[in-house]
Write a structure and sequence with these properties.
Shape: elongated
Radius of gyration: 25 Å
Structural class: alpha+beta
Number of strands: 10
Strand order of the largest sheet: 4-5-6-9-8-7
Length: 262
């Protein structure tokens, strides 16, 4: 074989080897992500009651994965702040996420009452002109004053969410003297209006924490937070509460029960 052909053949073999190596790495990364999802679920439901994950070799056997795949999966969970490697102990759970249901209309304190005490730091509260999108949603004329409330909400003292709330002023004025630090707005709205809340439309998405939100939530700047937009109506259908809630994604998990209908 001429030298040029041997060089070309060798180069071709090298390219094939590199491609195969990349394919193996990609496959292992896929499997690591799948395993991380399974382990995350176990962590969130308290599947590791001792607070310590099984040894890597045990995880590899239980989940039919290679040791390298297990290590990569644990690295992903460490990057999320869920687990930590402790010398002489192993991989331990260092963070907890709290469940927030999406299939019932409840305030945060009602939702998380089994997990501790929710307190509210009222950072801003008072009348403010309603921006057009807010006015449209609350069915009030644009520029009309609404009650604007900004609260930092904590669970057992740890920052959990930053809530921005808009309420029509004819209802919101009665909230000015209420105990917003220890009471959900939902309960106050029902007390003030004499009506039960009826239904709410929600939108949930991940957004990047701006500098202000990150500082208030004590989260890394640029971290992903869960943004819940919720428009709540009274039982008679009137919209009374428009909220933009930024949750720390490392401290909350959303869940709901869905029924299929065609």
């Amino acid at each position: 074989m001429p030298p040029t052909d041997r060089i070309r053949d060798h180069a071709g073999q090298g390219a094939t080897t590199v491609a195969a190596h990349r394919a193996r790495r990609r496959l292992r990364a896929d499997r690591a992500r799948q395993l991380a999802d399974l382990l995350r679920r176990q962590i969130l439901v308290g599947g590791f009651s001792s607070g310590t994950l099984p040894h890597e070799s045990v995880l590899a056997t239980d989940y039919r994965a290679s040791r390298n795949t297990v290590r990569e999966a644990l690295d992903l969970l460490r990057a999320e702040g869920l687990v930590e490697r402790q010398p002489g102990v192993g991989t331990v759970v260092v963070a907890r996420k709290y469940p927030h249901g999406l299939d019932r209309l409840m305030g945060l304190a009602e939702t998380l009452h089994e997990h501790g005490r929710v307190t509210n730091e009222v950072r801003t509260m008072g009348p403010a002109p309603a921006p057009l999108p807010v006015a449209d949603r609350l069915r009030v004329p644009s520029g009309t004053d609404v009650l604007y409330i900004e609260r930092l909400r904590r669970l057992n003292g740890l920052p959990l969410s930053l809530d921005l709330t808009y309420i029509p002023l004819d209802i919101g004025t009665a909230l000015l003297g209420c105990d917003l630090e220890n009471t959900d707005v939902f309960r106050l709205l029902e007390a003030v209006t004499g009506q039960r809340l009826g239904h709410a439309g929600i939108t949930l998405e991940a957004v990047t924490a701006d500098a202000h939100s990150a500082a208030v939530l004590q989260a890394p700047r640029g971290a992903a937070v869960l943004m819940l937009e919720r428009l709540t109506h009274l039982a008679d259908g009137r919209p009374v509460d428009l909220e933009f809630i930024r949750f720390r994604g490392d401290r909350i998990t959303m869940s709901g029960l869905l029924h299929r209908s065609l």
